[in-house]
Specification:
FMN-binding domain-containing protein; FMN-bd; 6 helices; alpha+beta; Sufe protein. Chain: A; 205 residues; signal
Length: 205
């Protein structure tokens, strides 16, 4: 019985002592006052750690030097391709030459054919007469008989009429009208020529 009581008493005493030791402020203060561990100088005593840090192969900031073999090579731009545009230069597109049209002007010269008429004198029919004129602008520049009486004396009279009226230098171009002089000996042919010429002028103007 006594042993059991002593054991209980001893257990209580040790528990109390442990609680008191943990709650004591002196314990934490003693731990704070302990000296901190000083770094070991690899060069041995009497050598400045800062000088050792500045030795070749060491980084002055204390960083571990990197190996040159692990550095990435710088990438250079591909040769033959330039992306930079020169400053101050501006490329302008040359103006295109104006398009020229070489369309030929329309000709104002035209041919106009008059109506045909019979050359009749005293109920005698000599032949058919028809005249064509050449007009440039508002002017007659030529005249030609497309049909005149032929055969016998008619050939002679028709030749006289043609000589007097046809051509660029004849009476039709000179007078610019159908008011022509009658060819002597070819009255019927002259009158038929004038009628056909008048109809052609009416069509042209």
């Amino acid at each position: 019985m006594r042993r059991a009581l002593l054991a209980i008493t001893g257990l209580a005493a040790s528990t109390t002592a442990l609680v008191v030791f943990k709650g004591s402020p002196g314990t934490s203060q003693v731990a704070q006052n302990l000296p901190t561990a000083q770094p070991v100088n690899p060069s041995g005593p009497g050598t400045d750690a800062g000088a050792a840090a500045g030795a070749p192969g060491t980084d002055p900031a204390g960083a571990t030097p990197t190996s040159s073999g692990s550095a990435k090579p710088s990438t250079s731009p591909k040769p033959g391709k330039t992306t930079a545009r020169p400053s101050g230069t501006k490329t302008t597109k040359a103006p295109s030459a104006p398009r020229t049209t070489t369309k030929a002007p329309q000709s104002t010269t035209r041919r106009v054919t008059g109506n045909g008429f019979d050359a009749i004198d005293d109920s005698q029919k000599y032949g058919f007469v028809q005249v064509q004129i050449v007009v440039s602008g508002n002017r007659i520049v030529d005249a030609v008989a497309l049909s005149l009486p032929s055969g016998g004396e008619s050939d002679i009279h028709s030749g006289d009429v043609r000589t007097a009226y046809d051509g660029s230098g004849a009476e039709v171009v000179q007078k610019q009208s159908a008011n022509l002089n009658t060819v002597s000996g070819a009255t019927a042919t002259s009158d038929a020529y004038k009628k056909s010429l008048r109809s052609a002028i009416e069509k042209a103007f």
